[in-house]
Each structure stands twice: as structure tokens, then as C-alpha cells.
Amino acid sequence: MDKITISFTLNGKPYTVATRPDIRMLDVLRDDLNLTGTKEGCGIGECGACTVLVNGEAMHSCMVISGQMDGKDILTVEGLSETEIGKTLQRCFLEEGAVQCGYCTPGMLMSAYALLRKNPTPTRDEVRLALSGNLCRCTGYIPIINAVQKVNEKLNASR
Questions:
Q1: Spatial separation of the C-alpha atoms in residues 127 and 94, rounded to whole Å
Q2: What confidence tens digit (pLDDT) does each residue in 62-95 have?
Q3: Are residues 48 and 40 in contact, defined by beta-carbon separation less than 8 angstroms?
Q4: How many angstroms separate the first and last alpha carbons of the chain?
Q5: In what helix (H) or strand (E) does residue 27 lie, and over which residues does it extend?
Q6: How far apart are CA 124 and CA 129, in angstroms?
Q7: How far apart are CA 14 and CA 141, in angstroms?
Q8: pTM to 2 decimals?
Q9: Which of 34, 46, 76, 78 has the smallest count of CB within 10 Å of its CB?
Q10: 148 phi and psi, to 5 degrees?
Q11: pLDDT digit string (tens) for 111-121?
């Protein structure tokens, strides 16, 4: 199969990649660009471990083919610490014990970040809904929800 050339912005930097059109975004990120923070869990869009932001929207990268990346603005967990909300969110995850095995953490962080960009003061139900596409087998979700709700409090305290 012939390769296609795609150009996109990734974590604030422009990229151009030659890849096959049937390759998933997840594989481009991990294999071609060596960004291994995005994890493959199920490979069918059910677990959320591969969540990234595409034009500000949380998406499962295992369900996006490479051609759909062209012209898009993509944010992965590696770029999260470049943002104030992202740094604070990561710190709150640590403080609240929302990280155990860590496999789901990148996807949880990305889904939470997408929510917090749109709604800085989400209710517990809004956090649950935003994270509903992400599975965690270790934490029981309560520390994750607490961490997400703590972000705005931390951000306001630092201003």
C-alpha cells in the first residue's frame, strides 16, 4: 500500500509524517513519533487508555486512522505539562492517589483535561460523565474524581 503524507500540529509543534493510510493514529504516535505515553488497552475504543485531544476534543486514538490526523491540532499526555491546567491536573492526581498501576492514567488525564478546558468547575456527575469512556481497574474512580474536582481550587489558590 502506498504511503500518504500528513501534516499536523502535535503538542504545539508542526509535524509531517509519511505513513500508510490504514495505520491508526495510536500507531503513528507510538511507533513513528516514539510518544509512548498514549497506551493501547483494548484497541476497539472501549477502554480510553489511548485518549488524546484532537482539535480540543477527547478521542480514542485507536479509532482514528492516520489520514484523519491531517491538518489537526493534537495533544497527547506528553504535551499536557506544557499547560497550567495540565500541570495542576497531574499534581492533583498524585496528591489524591489517583494513580496506581498507571496504565489508564494518560487517558484519564486527557479526558479530564478536555472537560476542565470547557468547564473549570465540574460537578461530580459531570466528571463521571466525562470519564465514562475510560476504564480503571485499580482506583475505584473516587480518587480520580476527587483529583479532577481539586484542579480549579488549586488554580485559584495559585493566582
A1: 17
A2: 999 999 999 999 999 999 999 999 999 999 999 9
A3: no
A4: 53
A5: helix 25-27
A6: 9
A7: 35
A8: 0.95
A9: 34
A10: -65, -40
A11: 999 999 999 99
Residue (of 123, 132, 124, 65) closest to 104 by Cα position: 132
CA–CA separation, 49 and 26 (whole Å)? 10
According to DSSP, the residues that pair with 13 across neighbouring strands are: 10
Q: Give the pairing of strands 73-75 and 13-19.
A: unpaired
Contact assessment for residue 76 and residue 35, using Cβ atoms and an 8 Å cutoff: yes
| Measured distance CA(69)–CA(104) in Å, rounded | 23
- Sole residue written with cell 497531574: 90
**Measured between alpha carbons, how far is 8 from 133 in angstroms, rounded to an integer?**
25
Q: In the numeric block, which cell numbers belong to residue 27? A: 500507531
